[in-house]
Specification:
- The protein is of the alpha/beta class and 176 residues long.
- It has 2 domains: 69 residues, Double Stranded RNA Binding Domain, CATH 3.30.160; 90 residues, Arc Repressor Mutant, subunit A, CATH 1.10.10.
- The strands form 2 sheets. The protein has a 4-stranded mixed sheet with strand order 3-2-1-4, covered by helices on one side. A two-stranded parallel sheet has the order 5-6.
Length: 176
């Protein structure tokens, strides 16, 4: 069984989902893949302890502090491949960036392969079910392109700026 609650962030309503003990989801309202299949069956319950923990974590995050991801019990639902990519995302330090290509190199090593598809990595990053906390917003294209954030480029920029990232050298992809 899944449970849900809402957190009023400075950037908009952020919906949280849990399995009772672990956080399984976190999405902004207009985000791609919002809620995946989890929220369809979730029961609204604001009293779940992991929600209280997560809201306190988010309060600290939005106050400019650097709460550790390890403070929260996370259980994102996904394939083994996606889980491995999300684990790499958790290793990106606050206020720093990495590229899809760098993650693909790490995945190739982890899977004992010579190369790994950047597109496969991009798909896993894009389907991250716990936004902000699993920091997919810290991933950019190889040439500094602000591509691929399910919450939208504007939100990605705001999160990076909150973390003190100088976004002036990053580029926004042209609309197709």
């Amino acid at each position: 069984m899944y449970y849900s609650t809402e957190y009023q962030s400075p950037l908009g309503v952020f919906t949280l989902a849990a399995d009772g003990e672990n956080l399984v989801g976190g999405w902004f309202e207009e985000q791609k893949y919002y809620g995946a299949s989890i929220l369809a069956t979730a029961v609204k319950d604001d009293e779940i302890p992991v929600f209280e923990q997560t809201k306190a974590w988010l309060d600290r995050y939005f106050a400019g502090q650097k709460p550790a991801i390890s403070e929260l019990p996370l259980a994102p639902v996904g394939t083994d491949f996606r889980q491995a990519v999300w684990q790499i995302l958790c290793e990106i330090p606050y206020g720093q960036l990495t590229t899809y290509g760098e993650i693909a190199k790490k995945m190739a090593i982890k899977l004992n392969r010579e190369t790994m598809s950047g597109q496969a990595v991009g798909g896993a990053v894009g389907h991250n079910p716990i936004s902000i906390i699993i920091p997919c917003h810290r991933v950019v294209g190889s040439r500094g392109s602000l591509t691929g954030y399910a919450g939208g480029i504007d939100l990605k920029i705001k999160l990076l700026e909150l973390e003190g990232v100088d976004v002036s050298a990053l580029t926004v992809p042209k609309a197709k």
